[in-house]
# Entry
Amino acid sequence: MRKTIAIIGCGPKGFYALDALCQAARDIPSHTFDVHIFEPSPYPGAGPIYDPEQPDILLMNFPAHMIDAWTDGRGPNLLAWLAENGTAVGADDYVPRAVVGRYLGWCFDKVAADVPLNVHLTLHPTEVTGLRPLRGGWMVSPGTIVADEVLVSTGHQDWSRKGETNSAEKISSPFPIDAALTRDKVSPGASVICKGFALTFIDTVLALTEGRGGVFTEKEYGYAYQPCGDEPRVIAPFSRTGRPMRAKVEADHFVPPQDGAFWRAQVADLETFLARQPDATFRDDIWPALLRIADSTLEMTPGTSAAFFADWQGAAFDAERCRYELRMGYAVAVGAMPPDICWALGEAWRRCYPVLVRWISHRELSTRDATRFRNAAAEMERLAFGPPAQNVGKLICLEEAGLVSFEHLSGDMSADITIDATIPPAGGAALSQPLTDLLRNDYVSVGALGGVIVNDRAQALIDDIVTPGLSIIGRATEGSVLGNDTLSRTLHDLPIRWAAHATSVTAVPAHPGLEQTA
# Structure
């Protein structure tokens, strides 16, 4: 049997799929696979998000020891790879994204060099603009390739909003930094207002300060900043909520109130409960359980987490509340203050997140449950998956120096330049080609949580019916699959499941309604 397989988009998720495909192909040497990789970025394996040429001031937001592009120990994790190349870093260090990009690129090259004899690999440095059914497969445009199986793994989609028009007063995305935030576009002394107050905002601020030559010096507590003179006069974020992200704790300084045995027991109890309660809901069962876990983490009175969360969500933050929460989070993260209930709630979410991923993925929630989940998840992302403490310390330092202002969180500031420091939302809300047309033509569908619906083999579904030969992995499915913004290969096994299906010897007949003529 011979199959043609196309992988559209080869950032980390596409690379994981290719690696899984090669592994699966080794088990069936009597079959041949023509595999076509479509990746417009010059960095297959890394993609534009992990561009190895981007400035080193842009850091990962999870520690180095958590980055491993391989399964079953078939290759070095990031720490081992760096050590082999003479650049050892600490396990809890937050390394530049460019470093991770170089690691992912090396991993891709290794897989491409070691493909099994029954895999014929072709790399197309091309952006795919369309897919249409043809002769029982999918015609990939531009080009003439008709694939039996197509996997779309286009990640952040139009992450840099290249389709939007910039002007002297408006920058639609700060990425790529070295093109979007030049001195010509954001001149020294300009006033800047940024839409968004999350990780991309912090990247923008550091690019316009440290990235231009300013120097941070770490003090006994916090940072001092020596300007270079090329910074904007002021950078002000604005957001709908004004709520800042919580800093991640520094392992060398933070003293956890509970040990690993405590967390293993909490996670196991939640998992056991869900296994016994097939009708459990997020609103009535899982969210209350997470609040109870947060209370017990600090041995707080039952209801403490619920009261904190209600207050946290109650109203948009003003500058004073924003400043306080940012400083409190930093103090907890570096061990200057004991853990508070805000940390405990974020930690409960983070520790139980793999259970949530398994429970929600491929499950359609009721409208009421989906609404409750979205509201909770939006806040918990801020509390559980925030930036490294060092970046929050630098942001506090810049605010104290007057280069950053929290006085205009509602957007009530007239500035020389407005920068959209948000990224397009995950799921089906901001699709780009080829997914846009696939959705318009009813080859894919979007679920209650906003993600393109796929089954546990990553196959696209319409009303629970598989769209033959079409699979999607990654950010576009967020909601149908939870937690796509990760490099972890242990949180999901979709690449392996997809590869087993894509290399299966039983051909799946095309849906008659999908067939079109050339």
Q: What stands out?
A: The chain is about 35% helix and 15% strand. The first helix runs from residue 12 to 26.
